[in-house]
Write a structure and sequence with these properties.
Blueprint: E1 5-12, E2 18-23, E3 40-45, E4 49-52, E5 62-64, E6 73-79, E7 82-87, E8 93-95, E9 115-127, E10 150-152, H1 158-166, E11 177-182, H2 192-209
Antiparallel strand pairs: 1-2, 1-9, 2-3, 3-4, 5-6, 6-7, 7-8, 8-9, 10-11
Length: 216
């Protein structure tokens, strides 16, 4: 399942509580926990808080379905049966049994009720899967000149971008692109043709804006 990095947002039925979790790795059917310390849990209402990994254990994310000897559902943090965030396979109910704190994310109970009904749930992909190629959609992403789009400072932090969008915060760096770095370039590598084009444009501007020569 090439889900990429995802943000799960849940609204609890019968309350104004909104909460969820961020998973930086692909979701896959597995009888064990997996993931990494970039994952976190969060609440949006009644207050905006994030709960990063405590690094006490590696129970970052869990997904299982159709088994009789293991719990079926989606979980993040804690232990099976006592997850910091758990969604049952019907996606209509769940639980947050972390009291007093989730061992994986140091989060308290996220929902108003420990066992809650789900009013709505959304899953946002905030970064493509590393196993997903650019040609999966039929064509490579380019900037119109046969090259990949330039990197922004926000590209490396999709989790922060998603939270800023939910909080309605302006992201000033979203349109700022590094002129020297392509997404498919492992290091800072200057293209000589780009450099020549830039210098030519600068010289033209200087020539057009320079005052006429003064003769004595």
């Amino acid at each position: 399942m090439r889900s990429g990095a995802t943000l799960i947002v849940i609204r609890e039925k019968g309350s104004n509580y909104i909460f969820g979790g961020f998973a930086s790795e692909d979701w896959s059917m597995c009888p064990d926990f997996y993931g990494n310390s970039a994952n976190f849990l969060f609440t949006i209402q009644p207050e905006l808080r994030t709960y990063p990994s405590s690094r006490i254990n590696d129970h970052y994310q869990y997904l299982n379905q159709g088994t009789q000897t293991l719990p079926n559902g989606l979980g993040m943090g804690g232990q099976l049966g006592y997850c910091g965030l758990w969604i049952n396979p019907d996606f209509e109910t769940g639980s947050s049994l972390a009291g007093p704190r989730c061992s994986t994310y140091t989060s308290p109970q996220l929902s108003k009720e420990a066992h809650f009904a789900i009013d709505s749930v959304e899953v946002w992909q905030v970064r493509r899967s590393p196993t997903e190629s650019d040609d999966d959609d039929g064509e490579a992403l380019t900037n119109g000149r046969g090259r990949r789009p330039k990197k922004s400072a926000m590209d490396a932090h999709p989790d922060a971008v998603a939270l800023l969008e939910m909080a309605n915060r302006k992201m000033y760096a979203s349109t700022v692109r590094d002129p020297d770095l392509d997404l498919d370039t492992p290091g800072l590598e200057r293209r000589s043709s780009d450099h020549e084009d830039d210098m030519e444009a600068i010289l033209k501007r200087r020539h057009l804006n320079s005052p006429p020569p003064q003769y004595m």
